[in-house]
Amino acid sequence: DAGVTQTPRHEVAEKGQTIILKCEPVSGHNDLFWYRQTKIQGLELLSYFRSKSLMEDGGAFKDRFKAEMLNSSFSTLKIQPTEPKDSAVYLCASSDRAAETLYFGSGTRLTVL
Amino acid sequence: QQQVRQSPQSLTVWEGETAILNCSYENSAFDYFPWYQQFPGEGPALLIAIRSVSDKKEDGGFTIFFNKREKNLSLHIKDSQPGDSATYFCAASGTNAYKVIFGKGTHLHVLP
User: Fold this and answer.
1) What are the tens digits of pLDDT across the range B52-105?
2) Are A88 and A71 spatial neighbours (Cβ–Cβ below 8 Å)?
3) E strands of chain B, at which residues?
4) Which residues contact A11 (CB under 8 A, 6 or more apart)?
């Protein structure tokens, strides 16, 4: 079985640009999560979808971050406009039982100049 | 209330020793505690987990000891190997099972 696939692995953006990160969850999983990982803040939940419905939109991340689930096998995270403080690793995870076991992708490392 | 704290931040042990990683939490409503292992360039992967009704969980060389009264738990890695060198995250969740709260991690270095 294929795991969670994230593309691209690395992204470099200029301040103010729009970037779109992509995620393909494990086939058959109903729950999809977007996390941001930094050394200082650790792992922070950005968005949570259950059966394609947005259940959690990340509170403080709402204004410039938008996650969408186009179908059960594809999700995107748009950051618009990007700021240098957005530099981090963005992780996508899926689960078949509400986060009891999270299956993470390898992440996208975003650098905003 | 929502925090999960891990110590130490970094731990170095020799091959064959038992590594002990500590975790504490504040929210009494947490009832599920997974530990995730992360290697550089990869996402975290579930290693072992325990529910608050148990006080010990073993899986291979990994053991979780859980103390509900003290609100802390520890992960023991027996006979550590260089391949166990990674970052280990303690996490917790409760009523809202999807809201997994992660600790900041412990970087484990196992020296040959």
Assistant:
1) 999 999 999 999 999 999 999 999 999 999 999 999 999 999 988 888 999 999
2) no
3) 4-7, 10-14, 19-25, 32-38, 45-51, 56-59, 62-67, 72-77, 86-92, 101-102, 106-111
4) A19, A21, A108, A109, A110, A111
Through-space distance between the first and last CA atoms of chain A, rounded to whole angstroms: 37
B39: nearest CA in chain A? A106
For A6-64, the pLDDT digits (tens) are 999 999 999 999 999 999 999 999 999 999 999 999 999 999 999 888 888 877 767 89
Which one, of A36, A44, A60, lies nearest residue A109 by Cα? A36
At B82 the three-state DSSP class reads helix
Residues of A in contact with B42 (CB under 8 A): 104, 106-107
**CB distance A100–B36 less than 8 Å?**
no
DSSP assignment letter at B93: B
Label the pairing between strands B32-38 and B86-92: antiparallel
